[in-house]
Write a structure and sequence with these properties.
The chain is an all-alpha fold. Helix content is 54%, strand content 0%. The protein contains one helix and no strands.
Length: 24
């Protein structure tokens, strides 16, 4: 939905915790 990072590695994780999961 919003900015995608790392080729949208985990779509579900991205939507679930937005950047929280991506950054850890």
């Amino acid at each position: 939905m919003k900015k995608k990072k790392k080729k949208a590695t985990h779509g579900k994780i991205s939507i679930s915790g937005n950047r929280a999961s991506v950054f850890g």
